[in-house]
Amino acid sequence: MDAENKSFSRDGNKIIHTRLLNAPRELVWEAWTNPEHIKEWWGPDEFTVTNRNMQVQDGGQWNFIMHGFGKDYENNVRYKKVVKHSLLVFRNGDENDELGFDVTVSFESKGKQTLLTMVSVFSSSEIIDKLNREVNAIEGGKQTMNRMEAYVNAQSKLYQQAKTNRISAVSTYLNFPGNTEEAFEFYRSVFGGEFYGNGVQRFGDIPAQEGMPPLSDTDKKLILHIGLKITGGHVIMATDSPESFGLKLDYGNNMHINLEPDSREETKRLFDALSAGGKITMELQDMFWGAYYGSFTDKYGINWMVNYADEEIKQ
């Protein structure tokens, strides 16, 4: 099978998953190595994850609990080799555990996409058969990869909104679980005016891309981006972030102050100063849409986005 197609195969004591993801390598890497991201998709359908600690480095460990089937499953991952944005090699389970297995995950840049290959090596083919009988391991692995793909694609779509976020130097960015349009019709009834910039943009307006799972008719109607000027010319912007995209929206993480500085230097200064003592959710970096972008929660619990792009991108 063509390596660039979504694929699954079994070769003796190996299970191989391949996915071509519609997101840049840096974003996919973040989904695999940031505990705030990986807990949103790791595991089969209906499973949840509680992280204890995660140190993605040579010799580091990721300790977590998987909750499913009415039980809690302790998990321990030890990273053997980490090459940022390129390679993860880790052991899932103790070295002397016959049910443990070794995993190699490679991240290959394909333009604006990422070819992800995950190879899991078990001690024997019989162990795979045993796990498959007892916990439906093969189907569980496929479901995990499907959840990862849905989450990465959803994150990629949300980040693409920065292409249109050139409305003002400071704005407020809001996330809703699926009722953005209702909320903004209400805000417009209060403040008046028309929706800003390109008006209402929906997920269904995005051209279909190879490898991207099809959207349901309901998801196509969801809001990708919308903006409205309120009092004093301030702009509020928003997007839908539904669970069908692999996202979990909690009140408190659904609002960001969005800063758009006028230089890379000022962007870095603000990011470093405001995030000190806080929690970084996206490292400041050059993103695939052309922006220098990062996000974090400061030490007082306030969420921020810092976003700089050259003038030709802003227009």
Compact description:
It is built from 8 helices and 16 strands. It is of the alpha+beta class and 315 residues long. The chain folds into 2 domains: 7-158, START domain (Alpha-D-Glucose-1,6-Bisphosphate, Chain A, domain 4); 161-314, 2,3-Dihydroxybiphenyl 1,2-Dioxygenase, domain 1 (Roll), CATH 3.10.180.10.
Structure description:
The protein is an alpha+beta fold and 315 residues long. It has two domains: 7-158, Alpha-D-Glucose-1,6-Bisphosphate, Chain A, domain 4, CATH 3.30.530; 161-314, 2,3-Dihydroxybiphenyl 1,2-Dioxygenase, domain 1. It is 25% helix and 36% strand. It has eight helices and 16 strands. The strands form two sheets. An eight-stranded antiparallel β-sheet has the order 1-2-8-7-6-5-4-3. It has an eight-stranded mixed β-sheet with strand order 10-11-12-9-13-16-15-14, covered by helices on one side. Strand 11 and strand 12 form a beta hairpin. The model is unreliable at 162-168 and 311-315 (pLDDT under 50).
Per-chain topology:
Layout: E1 7-11, E2 14-21, H1 25-33, H2 35-38, E3 48-54, E4 61-68, E5 71-83, E6 87-92, E7 101-110, E8 113-122, H3 125-135, H4 137-160, E9 170-176, H5 180-191, E10 201-202, H6 217-220, E11 223-229, E12 235-240, E13 255-259, H7 264-275, E14 279-286, E15 292-297, E16 303-308, H8 311-314
Parallel strand pairs: 9-12, 13-16
Antiparallel strand pairs: 1-2, 2-8, 3-4, 4-5, 5-6, 6-7, 7-8, 9-13, 10-11, 11-12, 14-15, 15-16
Helix pairs in contact: 3-4
